TrEMBL record:
Gene3D superfamilies: Tetratricopeptide repeat domain. PPR repeats lie at residues 112-147, 214-248, 284-319, 387-421. GO terms for biological process: RNA modification. It comes from the Eukaryota. GO terms for molecular function: RNA binding; zinc ion binding. The lineage of its organism: Eukaryota, Viridiplantae, Streptophyta, Embryophyta, Tracheophyta. This is Pentatricopeptide repeat-containing protein At3g49142.
Length: 694
DNA sequence: ATAGGGTTAG
């Protein structure tokens, strides 16, 4: 039965829609809301519906709706009702507009504490911390309102968010005056305030003095330690939290809080956090995101990708932008181009672009998979602007692919766009110069770094410069450069010098570098072959055996080299001397065939070169064929001539495999992109983009 | 009618 009001049905339908909507609307629902015919004529809506619609205005896109509603509420003289006025203030604040909220606030003749609390919170949520504190300080006997247990958490949040320790201390004093020290919410806010102001000791004191603690208290404490770089303390707090019986149980906030402490950590800690994760009854999206990020950042890319798959497929949880930003680096690390592309499609389908973080992550993924054009396409299509990270991504991409001049041009374009380069941008640029052998350019930019941009060079910049000079054959100069560095040279610096000595066959400086390296990191697997070979060549047999002993006594084994290639939707892994593949016989046949042709072209296996990182037992036989060669042969057998061969290797490729790949690319007229632990080698027409230096 | 902690990139 309908009345004569033609909008009665619409009112009913509208009411149903309102009830069905969640409190926070996803963006497409917001658009629906704005286009609703009922809202074009809100005068036909009942008071109750108007108020229900008001509750749904929580997003900037609903601002026009809100303004219409507001004027109708004024027309109906409902705006002076305190609870309605509060709703209007909150809605404006959620839409990012504090001024109209303040107007409502100022227009209320009798403001009780709730008005103050809501107004202060509006300011805090919109980043206007000083406004919030200003209003807070106006409270008091003069205006007839005293701050209460709702006011303090908000006021403290204003201090936490702006790192305002001074204000925080004053508020803490005030908290004590009002006897709210033991309030749970106030205590939690105090912990965060101290932690965010760099005082995790104070935060811990507050925590210890609290009579009630809940999961938020623990999370605030853990986050405090984690954000202040006290990773061990953060883990200790999490462990204590876990042994507390029953309550409080860790929640997704716990996972997010511990995150910074375990982004770069030991595998034992990753295992521990994984246990926490597994024990959580209701893991939300945030927990999955955090766990994926932890794996991805600790070089456990396969685990990151596997967790991502489980989350989507088995748990049916919808990934969001943060999930993608966390899993994309893992795709890059694995050169899982097919998965990376799938994720890119998914991102487009979900209309998550433009999003700078995602676009940067996509660029990085494509660059790491050896797809420079795809990385460039993402860069060119960025609609929401580019930041230093975006530019650094694309500069790195060109740099590692050997296009130093393009990297320099991009760097200049970045400057032209008004952005200021930071430390990492310079690492990227200097490496690009170094990879491309642009000696003078590298020196020039190293100079501008301090002269123009007031950046103090860090150890990684010095390592880049040593690499740059060394590559140019300026070994004496490189050595001098190290000697006058203001920082203590580390293994990267000496490693760069040793690498240069290998390429330029300089024994005397090579031995100096080797001695330093041996002193610094005798056990580091990456250097040990080089070290023992250079000592052997110099006839220093005692040092040879010391290197070997250091290796075995510390129980460190050489990381087994392996090469990954993607064929179809599968990743195939090859190890040294691998005979496990069904096509093994064919692979070795193919390699022998190629070897014959290579020898005709003057190839000799580099097994006796003292300055080369080839192992003793590495002869031409089956047992010692390096994984790169197997992977290349496998791809030659299984793909047509038009297919670009992409290989991912976990170590630095050796000189022998490099020469072999170069010759094979020439003989077979195939393009080969080999990514080793250091950089890309793009073999085309018998030439390598790295200029035979790496 | 009002409150506290936490997640993503080079």
């Amino acid at each position: 039965m309908y009345t004569n009001n033609p909008y009665e049905r619409l009112n009913k339908a509208w009411l149903r829609l309102m009830k069905a909507l969640p409190t926070r609307l996803p963006s497409h629902k917001q658009v629906q809301l704005l286009r609703s015919p009922a809202l074009l004529h809100p005068e036909h809506l009942s008071d109750a519906l108007l108020l229900q619609t008001l509750d749904q205005c929580h997003h900037p896109s609903t601002l026009p709706t809100l303004q219409t509603l507001h004027s109708h509420l004024i027309d109906r003289h409902l705006h002076n009702n305190p609870s309605i006025a509060i709703k209007i203030m909150r809605a404006y604040a959620s839409c990012g507009h504090t001024s109209p909220a303040r107007k409502v606030f100022d227009g209320m003749p009798h403001k009780n504490i709730v008005f103050y609390n809501v107004m202060i919170r509006s300011y805090v949520n919109n980043g206007l911390y000083s406004n919030a504190l200003c209003l807070f300080s106006e409270m008091g006997p003069r205006h007839g309102v005293q701050p209460d247990n709702y006011t303090f958490p908000c006021a403290l949040k204003a201090c936490s968010a702006s790192g305002n320790l001074c204000g925080g201390l004053q508020i803490h004093a005030s908290v004590s005056k009002f006897g709210l020290d033991t309030n749970l919410f106030v205590g939690n806010a105090l912990i965060t305030m101290y932690a965010r102001c760099g005082r995790s000791g104070h935060a811990c004191q507050v925590f210890d003095l609290m009579t009630d603690r809940d999961v938020v208290s623990w999370n605030a404490l853990i986050a405090g330690y984690a954000q202040n770089g006290q990773f061990e303390q953060a883990l200790k707090a999490l462990k204590e939290m876990m042994v507390e019986l029953n309550e409080p149980r860790p929640d997704s906030g716990t996972m997010a809080s511990i995150l910074p402490a375990v982004l770069s950590t030991d595998s034992s800690n990753v295992v521990f956090v994984r246990n926490v994760f597994d024990q959580m009854v209701a893991k939300g999206l945030v927990s999955w995101n955090a766990m994926i990020a932890i794996y991805a950042n600790n070089s456990m890319s396969a685990e990151a990708v596997e967790l991502f798959r489980r989350m989507e497929m088995e748990e049916g949880i919808e990934p969001d932008a943060i999930t993608f930003a966390s899993v994309l680096p893992a795709c890059g690390e694995l050169s899982a181009l097919a998965l990376g592309r799938k994720i890119h499609e998914c991102i487009k389908r979900k209309r998550l672009l433009p999003n700078m973080v995602l676009e940067n992550a996509l660029m990085d993924m494509y660059a790491n998979c050896g797809c420079l054009p795809a990385a460039r396409e993402v860069f060119d299509n960025m609609q929401g602007g580019r930041d230093v990270v975006s530019w650094t991504c694309i500069i790195t991409a060109y740099g590692v692919h050997g296009y130093g001049q393009t990297a320099i041009n991009l760097f200049q374009q970045m400057l032209d766009s008004g952005l200021k380069p930071d430390h990492i941008a310079f690492v990227s640029l200097l490496s690009a110069c170094s990879y491309a052998g642009l000696l003078n350019e590298g020196k020039h930019y190293f100079g501008t770094m301090t002269d123009t941009y007031n950046l103090v060079p860090r150890i990684e910049h010095f390592a880049c410069m040593v690499d740059l000079l060394g590559r140019g054959g300026q070994l004496e100069e490189a050595y001098e450069f190290i000697m006058q560095m203001p920082l203590e040279p580390n293994e990267r610096v000496w490693g760069a010098l040793l690498g240069a000595c290998r390429v330029h066959s300089d024994m005397s400086i090579g031995l100096i570098a080797a001695d330093h390296l041996f002193r610094l990191v005798p056990e580091q697997s990456g250097y040990y072959v080089l070290l023992s070979n250079i000592y052997a060549r110099a006839g220093r047999w005692e040092d040879v055996s010391s290197v070997r002993k250091a290796m075995t006594s510390k129980g460190i084994k050489k990381l087994p080299g392996c090469s990954n290639v993607e064929l179809g939707n599968k990743v195939y892994t090859f190890h040294i001397g691998d005979t496990s593949h069904p096509q093994s016989e064919e692979i070795y046949k193919k390699l022998n065939l190629l070897l014959g042709k290579m020898k005709e072209m003057g190839y000799a296996a580099e097994t006796d070169s003292a300055l080369h990182d080839v192992e003793e037992e590495d002869k031409e036989g089956h047992l010692s064929v390096h994984s790169e060669k197997l992977a290349i042969a496998f791809m030659l057998i299984n793909t047509g001539p038009e297919v670009l061969i992409r290989i991912r290797m976990n170590l630095r490729t050796c000189g022998d495999c490099h020469s072999a790949a170069k010759l094979i690319s020439s003989i077979t007229k195939r393009e080969i992109i080999l990514k080793d632990s250091n950089r890309f080698h793009h073999f085309k027409f018998g030439v390598c983009s790295c200029g035979d230096y790496w």
